[in-house]
Amino acid sequence: MCRILSYLGKPIIVEELLYKPDNSFIKQSYHPQYMSHLLNLAGFGMVAWDGVSNNPTLPYLYKTPQLPFYDENLRNLTKKIMPKCILAHLRGVEYSNKQIVSMQNVHPFVFDNTNIALAHNGALYEFEKMKYDLLEYIKPSYIKEIKGSTDSEWIYAVFMSQLSSPAGQISAEEIAKAIIETLKIFHRVRKKHNIIVNSPVNLFITNGEFIAATRFVFDFGWFPKHSISPHASYHTLWYTYGDSYGYYDNEYKMKSSTEKSSIIISSEPLTQDTTTWMSVPEYTLIIASLKENDIIITSQDINI
Question: What's the pTM?
Answer without folding.
Answer: 0.94
